[in-house]
């Protein structure tokens, strides 16, 4: 069985995953077939095909939806949740469930609670964010909550935008949990270093390509924007103007 998955190693060409559903001369071929099919489906849920699966779920009856969610929650989600949490835990130098990424950024992982706690501290400022992974992950989105932010100077709009982007990353099937955790840390690093956020998405580091804002209008010379955000804004508005001053766009 061949399964087309997401590009391997960040390349543009999709790669092929070969999965053996049964072994030759197996004593229980049907059981192995069922396990192999479940393994294939688990790979689908971890790839860009997740959106296709979720779209298909919207087309079936509610009773079948409930049955489908129940099967995934019981047999597949526990494995995917554990793998996601272990991916983060694997970054711990000592193997401990609580560890420091750097002198400012601390991560705590609880596998029984399906919870990741992120704590960022800079002098007197302190920020805590919690990521709670649901039992039916990745079919159901994680809960990303802002617990505290003493003296961090991040506006409410920024927090909402950051939390939304973390949720989209975790729920979109295109990124793992560690990528989401890293994105939050980079946004906090850039925020405290004085880097201005993109005025369209309110984030410093783009959730799409992880770049800093690098497009600036030559007319108003206001805050820089992410190129992806700017092109998306143009596509949606139908106008190639500066989103801030509304002048015809001239790149600085």
TrEMBL record:
A GO term from the CC aspect = RQC complex
Molecular function per GO: ribosomal large subunit binding; ubiquitin protein ligase activity; zinc ion binding
InterPro entries xrefs? LTN1/Rkr1, LTN1_UBC, Znf_RING, Znf_RING/FYVE/PHD
Q: Which GO terms describe its biological process?
A: protein ubiquitination; rescue of stalled ribosome; ribosome-associated ubiquitin-dependent protein catabolic process
Entry EC no(s)? 2.3.2.27
Which SUPFAM superfamilies does the record match to this protein?
A: RING/U-box
What is this enzyme's class at the first EC digit? transferase
UniProt keywords (A-Z) are: Metal-binding, Transferase, Ubl conjugation pathway, Zinc, Zinc-finger
What the entry lists under Pfam families is as follows: UBC_like
Catalytic activity entry: S-ubiquitinyl-[E2 ubiquitin-conjugating enzyme]-L-cysteine + [acceptor protein]-L-lysine = [E2 ubiquitin-conjugating enzyme]-L-cysteine + N(6)-ubiquitinyl-[acceptor protein]-L-lysine
Family membership noted in the UniProt record: Belongs to the LTN1 family.
Question: What task does this protein carry out?
Answer: E3 ubiquitin-protein ligase. Component of the ribosome quality control complex (RQC), a ribosome-associated complex that mediates ubiquitination and extraction of incompletely synthesized nascent chains for proteasomal degradation.
Assembly and interaction partners: Component of the ribosome quality control complex (RQC).
Record protein name field: E3 ubiquitin-protein ligase listerin
